[in-house]
Amino acid sequence: MCRAASSITRPPSSAGGAVSGVGIGLRSPHLKEVLQTQPDVPWFEILADNHSAPGGRIVAELEQIRAHYPITFHCVGMSLGSVDPLDWDYLRNLKTMMAHYQPAWVSDHLCFTHLGGEHYHDLLPLPYTEEALQHLSSRIAQVQDFLGERLLVENVSSYVSYAHSTLSEAEFLGALCERADCDLLLDVNNIYVSAFNHGFSATAFLDAVPLERVREVHLAGYEDKGHYLLDAHNHAVYEPVWSLFSDLARRAPHIPALIEWDNDIPSLQVLMEEAGKAASIVRIHETATA
């Protein structure tokens, strides 16, 4: 039973020290500059899959980054929603990396990335049904039991939906957190992209999400394709996403946020300016609630 698998209350991990404020997703073009200048960035998120090979320059660079900054791990390879068996080699390697680098927490996506032994370069969405909820909560509970801490699961952007879904995405997320005893990485850009693509209210999504389970927020830029939005991570954050983030920050200004930019990557200075915009929004709401 899923309930039995998640019966142990898992405290949030604090292995990697305090993470607060607005961080930046660290990408290879900026590694040298970060190491040389040690910019005023409160924390970095690391794509764990890009650092999983043992030894060499990449490991040495990450060790230097970790010596000066708190970090979190973001993953794309757990394929939590797949019906294929969990990849225990992947998880063992991740657990070894966690012990070495001590990230504050680890996250992956609410999706599947491989099926029938085939790996796909996309985050494929799930149906929001009771069957999927049972399957996913059981797998997340297994991963958490193995890693020894709560996992953060991220809502993905989507371009298709399942006709037999019986729950909204936000309802599904809330039920999943309760059953699996996991936390959320809430991607505000993905909320807006999916809301536009499927015609639901992004604000209503926020209303339904259990904010007490949200431990990190992602901000990124989409690409406007006219009749749909693409979660391309190749632009600055657009105004509708800033507006939605402001609504979220008004409700929960304490949640750490992160700027993601994965394609057509600009200078580190541009990313720091984006992080500064997010931090300014948070300060406004912190002051209002003080």
How would you summarize this macromolecular structure in one to three sentences?
With 290 residues, the chain is α/β, with parallel strands linked by helices.
Report on the structure:
The protein is of the alpha/beta class and 290 residues long. The protein has one domain: Alpha-Beta Barrel (TIM Barrel), CATH 3.20.20.150. The chain is 42% helix and 17% strand. It has 10 helices and 12 strands. Strands 1-2-3-4-7-8-9-12 form an 8-stranded parallel beta barrel, surrounded by 4 helices. Strand 5 and strand 6 form a beta hairpin. Helix 5 crosses helix 6 and helix 9 runs parallel beside helix 10. The longest helix has 22 residues. It is globular and about 55 Å long. The N terminus is likely disordered.
Short key terms for the protein model shown above:
alpha/beta, TIM Barrel, two-stranded antiparallel sheet, 17% strand
In CATH, the homologous superfamily goes by the name Divalent-metal-dependent TIM barrel enzymes
Low-confidence stretches: 1-11
* Structural class category: alpha/beta
The coarse overall form would be globular
How many H/I helices? 10
The rounded distance between the terminal residues' Cα atoms is 44 Å
CATH-derived topology = TIM Barrel
CATH hierarchy class name:
Alpha Beta
Q: What would you say the CATH architecture is?
A: Alpha-Beta Barrel
Helix content: 40-55%
Largest sheet: 8 strands, parallel, barrel
| Beta-strand segment tally | 12
